[in-house]
Specification:
By secondary structure, the chain is mainly α. The chain contains 33 helices and eleven strands. The chain folds into four domains: 81 residues, no CATH class; 169 residues, no CATH class; 202 residues, no CATH class; 174 residues, no CATH class. Helix content is 53%, strand content 6%. A hairpin with a 2-residue loop joins strand 2 and strand 3. Helix 22 crosses helix 26. The radius of gyration is 27 Å and the shape is globular. The N terminus is likely disordered.
Amino acid sequence: MNQADQREAGIPAVTAAAKGSLTTQPSMKLGDCRTCRSMRNLLMASPTKIGRTRPHRAIGCLAALVALLGLEIQTALADTSPSPRPSSANVTSRDIAAEVDRRLLADIAAAREASTDDAAIFRVGELTDDVTFLRRVYLDALGRPPRPTEIRGFLNEPSPKKRIELVERLVEDPRFGANWANYWRDVILARRTDNRALVLVNRSVQKYFTTAINENHGWDDIARAVITATGNVREHGEVALILAQQGKAAETASEVSRVFLGIQISCAQCHDHPTDPWKREQFHELAAFFPRVRVRPEFVDGQRSFKLVGRDFGPRRPRVNKKGRKRPPIEHYMPALEDPAADGTRVGPRFFLTGSTLPLGTPDAERRGQLADWIIAPSNRWFARAYVNRMWAELVGWGFYEPVDDLGPGRDADALATLDYLSAEFVSSGHDMKWLFRTIASTEAYGRESRSRDPAGRKQLGFNSVQPLRGDVLFDALVVALNLPDELAARGTGLASLTDKKDAGEAADEMEMMETQMNERQRRRRRLLGGPRGAFQLAFGYDPSLPREDVKASIPQALAMMNAPQINRQLRAHRRNSLLREITATVASEGEVITELYLRCLSRAPTVEELDICVDYVDKAATPAEAFEDLQWSLINSTEFRYRK
């Protein structure tokens, strides 16, 4: 890619690689990078905190200062004045949100002027009502709908700032990290090439992302941890992406680019990309950052497991051992298309967005560490764009680029000025994931009424968009609708664990029947994935990177919701732990029972028409209990229950 193409793509210029271990760095104002600012602040505050910085980045950056300025390190530090605070530190999320709304409206107006489409596609919706907003933000933040007490409390809150105050509270809830950990688990494991990853890292990757998000680690820190990951797969969830690709260099390179840059470079693996500027050599130069990664078996406490390691010793070219197995080399070879059995051409690590290189022989830790630095550099706009675009699509229902993992200089985008503004502010925030959620959730764009796409599949930029619930979110919606205890849902034991003694025999028979219909591998996977929650995720989960209009409900899913014995057992009005038994014991009128069921299942009260229909049905039923069971069953099988508006 020449310099003109780089400028068009928003790719920064880079300096030549320095000697020794000092590698190419994106050009920027000296002393203005994140590490320099951190070092200055730490030295001015407390020397004991210096150990918390990233020494590999600090050393390289300070060495560059010394080399270029010809100064002693102490002199350079003493002469460095504090850099200005980033723009997002001087304004609130609400200020940024207001500017996002202003720019989005301008982008919509410009698109309307330039388009020959029906003007209705560019209409801007009104703000949605409090009830719809409440369910939307609970599902997006915590992965579950609000409970009746939370609904009543929010509706009775008189503060005009209650929506923003609610967002602030939800972002600090521990379930926020757990919900988004489930999301990133699905993103990483959806494109796996090894199904063992489902059972090996399902729990560890959830634990890693939950902790990182709740402790507000920056997205750049998380990206670095995932790209450079090593360790036992059951203990280090950050290894999930590489393990899911079996540690193979080409597949890992494709996923790193897709997840962290939003760029699909995998098409260039066998040939030059047909529409993008990426060449086949560029793909394999990216893969050359990963040939030294190995997945090794090991036993931990008598349990078979695997660990991810970097191996810097081995054959430089492909070798076949005595058993006839090919030993992978520690350098990457681009296969010869005309002779696949040949070794191919050895290529060195080069980052395709900047042309920055590392020499052959560079150790694994340095290869992956340097690639991570180049990817997360503030000057690399694709890193921030990819994350902001993905989060906007998840929260507002449409992406500036679609699909969310197919960005690039040759791709068309909607409202690009809005995306670039929000991406720049995201970088200024220190890649703060909670900050971005608060900011987007504070926009009018997020709070507007929702619409489905028009029949032609066109986005309606002036509306939020209807979306199906993810598998784990649908499970937790059932937990709320059926009034299951939070601690059971959190442990993943869920529906099948709540059986009365009188139901125990029946439940055992049902579970035995289900077990006999599975082979041994399926039974083991079901247990390792966390019981009913894991099985539910397998049945109802989908790849979050897919456009939502491509996510279709299946007949087996519908049958599972309608006929699952664990669900139907919880609907029984006579059952000791059932919601209906609790409601009918404390609520007097039929209308109040119906309203409580609507609040539990749909997070809203019934309309006057719905209430009349339901009361009439109860009056005509053999018993009120049977009618209420039918009503709750109907509500959890409704489209409204399975979708977020």
